[in-house]
Structure formats: C-alpha cells, structure tokens
C-alpha cells in the first residue's frame, strides 16, 4: 500500500475524488467504449488503484492521472475485443460513413445542438481531444492523458475544430447567426 | 478558405496555432504572432471568430454529469478496499500474505492477459486500413513509373494516410525505428505489416513543420533527418510541398554517436544578427553532445579553413571558445569548404553513427549547383558512404532556397530554414 499519512485522510481523499470524478470519468470512458457496463468497470479499476496511490506523489495531478488510468484500461478492453483500431490513426476515413443524418441536420436549428451532434460523429481520436478540452484539461494535460506530445494534441484539436467549422451545415448556421445578430458584418464565405 | 478535411501536414503546426489561440493555449509570444496574422492575413479574422463561437457553443452545451448515476457498487468496493487496508495495518503478518497473494494474482492475470492478447493481436487485422492503402495506390491509369524512386510506403502516425518514402529514406527510417518497410511496387500490403508499421510510427513520429519528425519520449534529438519528394499525388489539391517529408531524428540513448562537421559561412555577407543566431544555435546543438560525439568546425570565406579540428563532444569549453571566435570576412568559396568538410567527416567517420556535414549559410554560396557538377557528385557519392548533408539557411529573406535545397537533396539530407532562435531550438535541439 503506497498511501502515506493517516489512513482515514487517505480514505476521505479517495471518497471525495469519487464524488467529484465518477460521473465525468464514466461519461468519458463510455464515449470511448460505447458501453456503460464496461465503462463502469474501467472507472472502478481506476479508483481501486487510487486507493493504493500516494496522495503526495500525485501532487495535484489527480484528474489527469484518473483519466490516464481509465483510458488505458479502456484501450486494454478494446484491444481484448479486437477493436483497437477505434483510437488509432485509421479513423480519418471513417468520417464519411458517419456523417450525421442530413434530415437530422436540417432539424438542428441552433448551432449548439448541431455542434453536439457533429462532435458525436467525429472520429474517436478527434472527439476525444475535444472531450478532454471541454473537461477542462489543457493541451499539456490532454497530451499526458492520451500519451501524445502537446504539439500533436494541438494539431489534433485543430483538426477537430476545423472539421466542425467546415461542415456545410455549420457554415449555414454560422451564416444564419451572423446575419441575424450582426447585419453589418456579412459573411465572406 | 480551405474546405479540404485533410490539410497538408506541413501546414498543420502553423494552422493549429489559430485554434490554440482561440482555446487560450498559446504562450504570449506565439499569441502575439497569431494576432499579427489576424490583422494581416485575409480570412484569418473570420476563422478566428467562427472558432471562438464554436468553442463557446461547445462549452455552453457541456454534458451534465449529474445525470450519470453514481454506482453504489463502486463506493462499496472502495470502502471495502480500505477496510482491508485497515485490517492489514493492524495485522502486519496477514498483510504480508495478502499482498503476496495479491501479487501472485496480479502476475497470473497479466500472464493470462498476455497469452490471450497474443492470438488476439495476430487475428486483429485492420483490413480497412490495408484497403485504404491499396485504394490509395496509383490506379491502372496512373501506374508507378518504373524509374520513380518512390518505392516504399509507410502508414503515417496520425491520420492513417500512407507516407511515401524513397528507398534510402525508408531504409534509414527502418534502421532507426526497426519499423518494417512495405514495398509499394509488389502491392502485397499485408494488413499485419501495415499495423506493425503504424504502431511503430505512432510511437516514434510526431508531425512537425514540413512533415514528420522522429521522437522518443525522454530521448534527445540532435541529428537532422532525410528529405525526399514524392512524384505522385497524395491527396487531391495537396500542394507539392505536402509531398515533401522532412524527418528529424531524435537520438535516443539507443542511437549511436554523432559525428558532426559544421561547415560555417563566415563570409562578409553573413550579417551580424545572423552570425549571432548561428553561434547561439550551434551552442544549443553542441550542448546536447556527449563524449561519444565528435565535432569539427570548418569555415569558409575567401579560403576554406579549419577552425576546430575534430573534437570530443564532451569538451564543451573548447567548442564554445571556437564558436565565439568566429569572425566574418572575405567572400564565399563554398565549394572548397564543402570538400574540406567532407574530408573531415570521412576522417572521423563513426560506423553506425550519425555522420553529418551541417552547412550553415545565408545562401550566398559562390557555387553553381547543377546535376553534373563536381560538387553535387561529391555530395552524392559521400551520401552513399553514409555522410549526409544538412543545410541550415540562416537569416531572413535573401535566401536562395532552391540551391540549398538541391544540395541537401543530393546529400540525402535535409534542409531547414532558421530565422529565429526559437526555430533553431525546434530544429536542432
């Protein structure tokens, strides 16, 4: 057992981490695995490991640590199921097949809900970095979690954002919003 | 504005700064540069604003995690774990047996997982990727020219796009990473092979500037890599530059020693600011060297001269003193300098090491570079013997890129353009 200091303090620390991160982590892993039960398993694995983890060693890096452990666990189970590809580089070509339904696209009247739709359709690799950023992680932390370099994360986030921005429906909605809100600034697109 | 989803690698790092700026992930220096771009580059401002709007919308629509039920099983499991711990603190003996048992369990499980994983890995064939690569291969209408030197292919780390390498490049890369090479011509791209290559590249390559650069976590990067061009279309609309893959090699501890011969332009045209930059850049690089490395400095102005004879990489003071003592004078005689540099490089050749002639110049080289030129022949011959040429263009503007690039291409090396210390650090360290 690597826990230092008082066992009671340590327990409180783990329990408060549980309160704070269980939901976020479950959602995060569920989005990788697409399966609630498997996600819960990975999260449980992470928290049980946290029980053996020294608080001082983590030194304020609790959230990235938890995400990293969860992600690795999730990747392990993907590998065991022979679905390892879903987080590797081969994703670019998948997006064509996972375009959001055009009928659905037309229904999304506001930019926000359309973007959420579109994020769901992003390849896992791109979606993941957006998720992490929305979860409040900096590029550096995101790099640590996804085992990349920060500059690579920077590029991947950029690709993801560019994909969102350049989708025809996004362009339409952006144009709509700018024409209703700022008539003085017509779009140049 | 581009509507191509796969923008070229070489633009990515630069372009990515815009998004990074929107998401507030830039250092203040980079932010200033981006802001200058916003003011001057048409369309940038609009892109910036749209990205900001998208980021805000995403932020606003963040998931509500409170809807995810807390698992009581998990809480119980954690509490149980702690009660186990408490007991074991009270009973040290049982703790010992418990932890030993636990370790045995962990080892058994990992061994089992490993055994399970092996057949899974084997059967796990990323057919789609293999198909993508096959599809990407030139069609009947566009056969690979027999004399094209593009013969090898690797999958790129980030986007699953194949990277086309020339044969020497592929071989160089393969020796560095132990990555398998897939021959483009025989068209038998086996899925396993692709996956192996991908796995290797995923770990070893990151995109940088014009292309790819090898990196190893914790490893030091000192030697510059190969450069080649691809005569075939990679993606519709991709610029010619996109076909050019610059590879930088980071020396990890496993990589053998470096034998570096600096060939420095100290002619009058090398301006003070550039010279200072050159000195700083060289110090950055020499600081990375160890006792296994060798450094030689050859200068050329009116006459080619030996400023620092081959020196052990550990003797940093000697090297720094030689760098500090560099003075600009005379006109440029590049040809003689290059010859002397190659002589020195051959003299201190390190077998299996990185043997480089690093030419640093502002581009005012008094040599003509043509295919049948003696100089090019020399460089090409020496490249075969394992001494590669790296060309660093220093300074802003006035740079005869074409000539330098041609030299580097012939020397199986790479060309980089350095206009700031930041750039120098990126390329050299």
Architecture overview:
The complex is a heterodimer of chains A (189) and B (429). Chain A is mainly alpha-helical and 189 residues long. Chain A folds into two domains: 1-86; 88-189, no CATH class. Chain A has ten helices and no strands. In chain A, helix 1 (7-33) packs antiparallel against helix 2, helix 2 packs across helix 4 and helix 4 (62-80) packs parallel to helix 8 (139-146). The N and C termini of chain A lie far apart (60 Å). By secondary structure, chain B is of the alpha/beta class. Chain B has three domains: 8-39, no CATH class; 128-249, no CATH class; 258-428, 3-Layer(aba) Sandwich (Rossmann fold). Chain B is 46% helix and 18% strand. Chain B contains 14 helices and 13 strands. Chain B has helices spanning 9-22, 28-40, 44-60, 72-90, 92-123, 127-136, 167-177, 191-204, 272-286, 316-324, 334-347, 374-385, 401-410, 421-428; strands at residues 150-155, 162-166, 182-183, 205-208, 211-214, 223-228, 245-249, 258-265, 294-300, 304-312, 354-361, 387-394, 415-418. A six-stranded mixed sheet of chain B has the order 10-9-8-11-12-13, with helices on both faces. In chain B, strands 4-5-7-6 form a four-stranded mixed sheet. In chain B, strand 11 (354-361), helix 12 (374-385) and strand 12 (387-394) form a beta-alpha-beta unit. In chain B, helix 4 crosses helix 5, helix 9 (272-286) packs antiparallel against helix 10 (316-324) and helix 9 runs parallel beside helix 14 (421-428). Chain B is extended. The two termini of chain B are 34 Å apart. The model of chain B is unreliable at 1-8, 87-98, 117-166, 173-189 and 200-255 (pLDDT under 50).
The proportion of strand residues of chain B reads: 15-25%
Look at the helices and sheets of chain B and give the structural class.
Answer: alpha/beta
Structure annotation, total helices of chain B: 14
Please indicate the count of domains of chain B.
Answer: 3
